[in-house]
Structure formats: C-alpha cells, structure tokens
Amino acid sequence: MWPLAIMTVLHRVLVKAVSGYITDDFKPVYEAALAFLNRREVYNANFDSVDPHYLYPPSGTLLISPIAIIDPEKSRWIFISVNAAAVILAGYLLLKLFDLGIKSVAAPILLFGMFSSETVTNTLIFTNINGVVLLAEVVFIMLLLRRKDLWAGAAMGLTIAVKPILIPLLLLPFVRGQWKVFVTAFGIPLILTAIAWPLSVDPMNFFKRTGPYILETRDYFNSSISGNGEYYGLPPWLTWGLRLLFGAMVLISLWILYRYYRTDELFFVTTTSGLVLTASFLLPSLGQMYYSMMLFPFLMTVVLKNSVLRNWPAWFAIYAFMSYDGWLSTRFPAEGRLAEYMRTTLGWSLLIIVIFSVLGDRYLAARREGRLDVSLDPVEPAPAPASVTELSDSLR
User: Fold this and answer.
1) Rounded distance, CA 127 to CA 115, Å?
2) pTM (two decimals)
3) What is d(CA 304, CA 264) in angstroms, rounded to the nearest whole number?
4) Distance (Å, rounded) from C-alpha 35 to C-alpha 199?
5) CB-based contacts of 375: which residues, under 8 Å, 6+ apart?
6) pLDDT tens digits, 68-105
7) Every domain of the chain and the residues it spans
8) Which one of 173, 240, 326, 337 is CB 3.0 to 4.6 Å from 178, fit for a cystine?
9) What average pLDDT does the structure give for the chain?
10) What is the DSSP-derived secondary structure letter of residue 288?
11) Contacts of 348 by beta carbon, 8 Å cutoff, 6+ apart
C-alpha cells in the first residue's frame, strides 16, 4: 500500500494541483489579501457571476493576508504544499487518536484513501484552505478528549476566524460541560476582528453584502437539499419536508448518542462530529462536495468495534460523496448529469439514514432484551466450549 499511497500523493500535488482547473478558489483569496495589504476595498465581488467569490470575514482576511507578499504563482504553490502537509499531518494524528501506528497497514490505507478522494483532490486543485481546517478539526477533537479546553477552543477559534464550517462541533463541549472551550473559540475571532477592523477599508460590507449572499440558497455548486431543490425546481413544501424529516432523524440519533454513548468518549465525540457536520452540509442553504473532508475523523471510527459504519450501505454513501469518479456521460447525458449532480446529496442523506437506522436498531434490540441500562452495543456471542480434543491438545 505504501507505493500506491506515496505515488497518489505526488500525483495529486505535483500534477493535478499544480496544473489547476477552471475553478480557482485561490485567485479571489489572493486578490483580497493584496487589496487588504494595499488598503483597497475587499468586499466588492459581483455575486451575479458563478465564479468563486471571496467569502472570508475581516478576521480571516487578516490571517491570510501574508500570502500576497510574494507573487501569485509561488504563493499558490506554497498554499498547495501547506494544505497537502496539513492533510498528511491530520491523517497521522487520526492514527494516534485511534491507537494505530505509522507501521500499521491502516497508515498507507488512510493516506491513499484521503488523497484519492474528491474532497482532498479538489481542495488541492482549486487551492482552498480546507486541508488546514481539517487539521484544526482533528487537533480540536484530540484536545477536547484530553480535556485541554482552552487549547481546543483556540484550534476552533482559528477556523471560525477564517471559515466557520466547524461551528456545529461546538455542540460537543456544550453537552460535555467543557465551558472553557467557548472562551477561546469565540475570543480569538473577536480579537482578530478587532485588529482587522481598523486595517480594513470596507469591513462593514462583509456583513451588508457578503453575509446575506452566504445565507442565500443558490442553485449551482450546492449539494444541500435546498440547493438541489432550487436546481431541479422542486416545490418548497417538498424540500422543507425533506429537511424536516432528516432533521428529525438527526435529533433522534443525537439523543441516543448522548443518552447511551457519552461515556464512550472516543466513539461519542467522533460519531457525533460526523453526524452534526453531515447535517450541517445537507440541511442548511449551502453544502459543497469538498466539505466532506471534515468527515475523515468520523470515517476512521470504522476501526472501532461498535462503529455505525460497519455495513455496506454506509460505504455506498461514502463512495457517493468521497469518490473522485465523474458520472457525466456522453452516451447517457441526462442520466449521467442526474447521477453526478445528485450523488453528494444522496450520499449525505444515506449516511444520516445509516446512522439513524443502526442506532435505532441497537436501541430497540437493547430494549427488547432488557439491557438498556447496561449497553446498547450488540452482545458478542460467548465462545463455544472447547472440545475434548482441543483440551487435550492444549494440555500437551
């Protein structure tokens, strides 16, 4: 596996990422950083176009502004390298989190799986900051489990300052009573905003122009239920009905996790993180396929005996939103377009259904067997009694 993993990493970084694509997330970020350093307007994008727009708040602009000190090409290569290194480091920390070593077969499998996925591949090709956000997420989870609350909040606060995609994970310290997390999680972006505000020419335009745009449901590059509903012209009652249905599944699953699994800390934190993040991609106004990178800590739970991912429907779902395969077809254009545009939405939806079904089945089985106060996990069958021949062989 190591040759496959290493060559895949080199291909994604040196060929796919450096070559780039028509979608370029780095260009508007570099231009915004350059404008910030030169005291020009930052939040003046034309939102009528479908090109990538600059959406970071003033605190994020302050943090990323150093990328404009050097020329755009070298800066982009550094940005790619930093994000690739962040993904690799996040993978290493995930191995440690699940008590797996670099010498285990899980290490090359994880590295190969990460860099084969659509989310890592397009993060590098489009050149955005998701790799660094993934690393911050893994650090946040590790520090949260070790009860280093202020440092966990610092990791979260840095992501909120740039790209608040991980905010749903603050549910974890809330239900676990780790209140100090919130001090740094919100304190850091507030301090950075206070520093950035007088240095920016148009900071209020982020709240007046960019903020409302972020909250809009757009019908392009949007795999949320509402986004695909807009694209396919579904009636509002249907999209709202689906959102409420999946929202109910999420709430019931969260209740089961909190009620019966919160003492199994690693399983509870990583599974709950996957559930709330998947819901945050699927149910609000915007969800993009490469957001799925934030689900890697959840996908690693497959190594746990009580994982909810040890079934084939889960991996159909994971294939749908993780695979780099393209389903557009010249032979079957309508069907291929439907498969390509819907696969992420269906994958996230199926993943929520799987979590809900597995946890619900465990709950019903435990209630039926009268062991709700003991454990929801399936009872492992007792080992078969040894035969006379096996006993005599062991005595020898």
Assistant:
1) 14
2) 0.92
3) 11
4) 11
5) 260, 366
6) 999 999 999 999 999 999 999 999 999 999 999 899 99
7) 8-215, 217-376
8) 173
9) 91
10) -
11) 223, 278, 281, 282, 287, 292, 317, 321
